[in-house]
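Bench notes, afternoon.
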Amino acid sequence: MGKGTSGRIITGRGDSPLDSLVEQLWREPVATGSVRVVLDPEPDTAWEDAEDYWVVPSAARPTILIPRGRPAVTAAALLSYRGLRPVRVRAARTLLGVPSRFGLPPAPHRLAVQRRTGAGGAAPLPLEELQACLNRDRLYAAIGIRLGDNRKPTLQLFSPAGVPAGYAKLAWDDASQEAISTEAAALAEVGGGTGPTRAPRLLGTGSWQGRPYLITEPLPGKVRGVRGRIPMPTPQEMFALCPVERVDTLSSTLQFSALTKRLEVLGATGDREVARAAGTLASLLSERNARVPVTARWHGDLVPWNTAREPDGQLWCWDWESSDADAAAGLDALHWTISVRRESAGIPAADSLDAALAEAAPFLRAAGAPPSSWADIAAVYALVVVERAWALALRNGGWSASRTSRSQSLDLLARAAGLLSGPGAQPPR
């Protein structure tokens, strides 16, 4: 085992990535002393392993916990869904996964979740809770170690034979609780269907330590991420799960109403300049009150890394944490194009708004949005981006953690207002 790590207790109170994971996933049982999490544990008759993992790629730079003890499960956790990974990650997992089929360790360090020996009647651990929810005797989990602002425990579940059994998310704080509750509600509507676009079926929901969790069915094994030569969604596919239900005024939509209320709450917390700019744009949209096609919901984060295709072209999309019901059609198309530009070229949303609107034109036409309403839809999207970044800044004590900075937020609001009221702008019909 690694030098200097033997028997190191991970308390969840430190600043390492493993501490962050313990805080998110095993905080309560660790705090009560009924469970401990140990890096490279030494023999100790007072404790027995409840879960056992390899720390990949290393204890210093952990990105995922891979189940240890059953070569078939270890290999499956490394080799499954490689088509969703970037090329370098895919190659690295192959190099680790193939030897692990024969029992070779994929990493130098292990992490054990241990209970006191003979502790009968102990409260279930999260993985045991998920097993009970799915009525399974035994499951293993590959656990992603997430450090971003949207972090939450994510567990890819496998049977003892190494067959994918589901994908779970568990809430650990107020933000993740809201996200998981939102996704569960969305998947209850759109998951498990057939058609041009599919979302994973919701296998189960419940709560652990007072916070919600969800489990979705595994994706088909041969899916490939929508990258490179894999084509992006067509208009038909984009509106398959979120169909247009009516044409109505913008102010009638539940999404716009909820968005403006959230902005009002944020405005009361300070930052008068952002509050004034967001309030001005929201007021302008309300005054214009354009007629727009309205979808049953919008995905909220439809991007290449949340979509994949089977070899026959069937499109799948997941991660519905940001979904809103009853929204102006076209928001997903704008989010897709702006996100691709930001990822590929680092272009801020404010600098992409005009180009993104042009690229989204086929989707807006397919939804039946008149050109006079396109600027209104783009402005709603600008408010969404700013509201998310602003809420994140307040939650984390400053704008430094937000992907969209304060200055970029102000630029985006100004650009959206310019589209509505600048030269050449068309009034709503």
